[in-house]
Amino acid sequence: MKSTRILENRALAERIYLLTLQIDEDLMNKLSPGHFVKIKLPDQRLDPLFPRPYTIHSLIGGHLQVLYQIVGKGTRALSQLTAGTDLEILVPLGRPFPRDLGYPLALVAGGVGVAGFGFLLESLPQEKRKETILYYGASSKESLVRLDYWETFGVTLKLATEDGSAGYKGFVTDLLQSDLSERKFKSILACGPMPMLKRIKEIAANSTIKTYLSMESFMACGTGFCKGCVVPRKGGGYFHICEDGPTFLADDIIL
Amino acid sequence: MTWKIGSLQLKTPLILASGTWGLGDTILDYLSPEEIINSIGALITKGLSLEPMAGNPPPRLLETPCGLINSIGLENPGIEVFLKRYYPRLRDLEVPVIFNLHGTSVDEFLKLVRYLEEENIRGVELNISCPNVTEGGIAFSQSPEVVFQLVKGVREIFSGFLIVKLSPVGPVLEVALACKEAAADALTIANTYPAMGIVSYEPLKVIKGGLSGPAIKPLTLRLVSDIISKVTLPIIASGGVLSGKDVFEYLLVGASAVQVGTANLINPRSVIEIHEELKELLLRHGRLLDKGHP
């Protein structure tokens, strides 16, 4: 694990935070979009016991940013830390997003599942960003965060909210589905809650679009040591989300 | 300084517990060979079976206050694949490697051990917390007689160092005495505690598995102390070690060595920190270890 310091830990919406960590250049050069980081809370904390895994959201300005939502005691404890706090991180973990993403590309995000797409878009050349559509859904307008940031990439941004307070009223997957007849995507990369990923998998099964799903899971180790975070593999057995993923070809896994 | 578990000599009393450092193929991503040699006395492999095992469907994990329930289901590639694909790199580390074995019958254990004897493997740890299918699925650890037969059978064909890893529940003392009578070399006390947790309400998901982590340390410390006072076999303590202080306390009650398990999952470099803390405690309070056990 490496020592780091919190530069900022800012609430963007109710329960959604943007954490900025100091990292050195050596470490930064080892990171690729799709990698994740485990963050160990400071002091001899026994509860929560395990450092939580977070997708790398952004490396802009030479800092490592994490976009997270409070879902349990680990994220709640993290949200209470302030700038200047020293903590330890284990990074890079997992495999990066696949390198064979085709364009036009549909990025599909549910809630803070959008996080990893920041680093991905930061890494893409301008011409590929122009061929990317970001479908971003949340429960309401307030939970769609960092819209200014997403707009800086010049991608087409398509929003959906369940309550209709911004963009399309309904699920982001319905928005994607209705676009499929007119847009010929080569790839889909999706990250969000399980019901959303299941729906994307169904959509993919009825098309020839190469579709990847980025999974979220509780992890104990994040390093492949415990074999605890699994997803059933088509053809039998299991993938380990931390070491084989967290991003999988939709066709390879059973949800 | 050297540490002894009976006839087995270790450079440090710290042992990486079975199933808490994967199959060993990524350990060098986090620890250098020098760090391993200097901090770790022995490595105990993931539980290995005759045939490959896919493990349990998810959920396999649930964090509890100061603990972890796991139900991995002994996922492993089988003894043969492990020996070919994973063991060579571990052997090269020049730290004793002890094979943790999982069998569902006495016969299966004997086959595994015969195989290892042929491959000149010098240490095994028998996991007896699993069901014995030939005895109606009751865990080996529930029956001192069956454990005696198992250990006696293994002892007859295995000339290396023989450890039995006890379950913390059931007739623990009787099982420990049976191991002694059947000429085991040491006992690991203990495996995880049977536990259950509700993972989610809707959909309803539950986990039944083993509890590890700092939550169990006081329980296992007591068990180690009780068994040491009644059984004259070297004891390897295993349960909830997160710090050098935890290790020192197990040594204080008479353990010959101590396993580090769940801590490896929190931080793959935990054992290095634990070793540094332990060295300091041994300098300050090491003399207490020669004064008999509390």
Q: Mind explaining what this structure looks like?
A:
- The complex is a heterodimer of chains A (255) and B (294).
- Chain A is an alpha/beta fold.
- Chain A has two domains: 2-93, Beta Barrel (Elongation Factor Tu (Ef-tu), domain 3); 105-214, Rossmann fold (3-Layer(aba) Sandwich).
- Chain A is built from eight helices and 15 strands.
- Chain A has helices spanning 25-28, 73-79, 115-123, 126-130, 147-151, 172-179, 194-205, 241-244; strands at residues 2-13, 16-22, 36-40, 52-55, 63-69, 86-93, 105-110, 132-138, 156-161, 168-169, 187-191, 210-214, 230-232, 238-240, 247-249.
- Chain A has a seven-stranded mixed sheet, sandwiched between helices.
- In chain A, strand 1 and strand 2 form a beta hairpin.
- Chain B has helices spanning 33-39, 79-91, 106-118, 144-157, 172-181, 217-228, 244-252, 262-266, 270-285; strands spanning 3-5, 8-10, 14-16, 42-44, 61-64, 67-70, 97-102, 123-127, 131-132, 138-139, 161-166, 186-189, 193-200, 205-212, 235-238, 257-260.
- In chain B, helix 3 (106-118) runs parallel beside helix 4 and helix 4 runs parallel beside helix 5.
- Chain B contains nine helices and 16 strands.
- The model of chain B has no long low-confidence stretch (mean pLDDT 96).
- Chain B is an alpha/beta fold and 294 residues long.
- Chain A binds chain B through residues 1, 40, 44, 46-51, 88, 90, 218-221, 223-232, 236-238, 243, and chain B through 19-22, 25-26, 29-30, 54-55, 57-63, 65-68, 70, 72, 75, 213-214, 242-243, 262, 264-269.
CATH class of the largest domain in chain A: Alpha Beta
Return residue spans of chain B where pLDDT drops below 50 for at least 5 consecutive residues: none
Find the CATH topology of chain B: TIM Barrel
**Globular, elongated, flat, extended or rod-shaped: what is the shape of chain A?**
globular
Distance between the termini of chain B: 24 Å
| Mean pLDDT across residues of chain B | 96
Low-confidence stretches of chain A: none
What's the helix count of chain B? 9
The tally of beta strands of chain A, per DSSP, is 15
Assess the beta-strand content of chain B as a share of residues. 15-25%
Q: Helicity range of the residues of chain A?
A: 10-25%
According to CATH, the fold-level topology of the largest domain in chain A is Rossmann fold
